[in-house]
Amino acid sequence: MQSKYLLIGGSGMDLRSKARTLSGPVTDPSKLPKWNYDGSSTGQAPGEDSEVILYPQAIFKDPFRKGNNILVMCDCYTPAGEPIPTNKRHSAAKIFSNPEVAAEEPWYGIEQEYTLLQKDTNWPLGWPVGGFPGPQGPYYCGIGADKSFGRDIVDSHYKACLYAGINISGINGEVMPGQWEFQVGPSVGISAGDQVWVARYILERITEIAGVVVTFDPKPIPGDWNGAGAHTNYSTKSMRNEGGYEVIKAAIEKLKLRHKEHIAAYGEGNERRLTGRHETADINTFSWGVANRGASVRVGRETEQNGKGYFEDRRPASNMDPYVVTSMIAETTIIWKP
Q1: Is the dihedral of CA 91, 94, 95, 96 positive or negative?
Q2: List of residues 6+ apart from 24 with CB closer than 8 A
Q3: Dihedral (Cα; 284, 330, 170, 57), 10-degree rounding
Q4: pLDDT 10s digits, 282-311
Q5: pLDDT, tens only, 180-221
Q6: Is the Cβ–Cβ distance between 52 and 45 less than 8 Å?
Q7: Other CB atoms closer than 10 Å to residue 54's CB: what's the count?
Q8: How far apart, in whole angstroms, are the C-alpha atoms of residue 185 and residue 196?
Q9: CA-based angle 106:111:112, to the nearest 5?
Q10: What is the pTM for the complete model shown?
């Protein structure tokens, strides 16, 4: 049977993969062999000591090869067993295995926005070459050949993620034409990061087949167009139980105190997106509100009414690292004592 080892390259956003034949089915990542790759070709090691070791961490069914074949999410180490600097999973796993965090069972729902581009022009799918479509309004959740571009790709991705065992909870067309979103979750702890990365891998493979380019740039088209985010919905056991609304308010207060640190870790180029317009809060100002899509953190009406539930951090950019964002939110709201 075939296994496809997935790794994150030196830019922190470049997914790569290599295939390996196994003698029989494997369901436990610890039973898979460690492997290596040339880190000097990914910007992660010098040429004279180029070996980076892959540690298998999570297994998914392979929607492309089917059968017993698998996709394997890996993280990266030196031959001496030290996590390399771009290995963000290792430190996230430490936070999630902290007894305080584990006891709170953090749930995540991540809304991954992305934009489909025409391969030869790097211009959004469905846009006239060198020109612009009509203004935003009819495209969000829209249908029709003049409003919806790339639906076959999006539907194939949805089905492939379900097949792979990713907890994908939905898809929709976004506000800017050529832009879409999928949601992963609710997922617990480190598995949220694993699932988002594998869902991104599957999406990029499907766009490759379709001859289309996917970009996770937070503001692919400057001007009066929506950017792309990765809104992160979050709750702990205490937030989901009676009296949870008070716990949520205390958690948001802690997020406010560490706004700068979070923004610094929430994705490159995010300042182009967080302008205070196009359903965003200004990057320099922390705000929260009920049902407010122009705030840094939004609390749903239902959560307010029930007095418990979850909240949404709207600051992360579409190119954020889910390992970094999920573990940082847990660390700030559960472990950190201001």
Answers
A1: positive
A2: 1
A3: 120
A4: 899 999 999 887 899 999 999 999 999 999
A5: 999 999 999 999 999 999 999 999 999 999 999 999 999 999
A6: yes
A7: 21
A8: 9
A9: 120
A10: 0.97
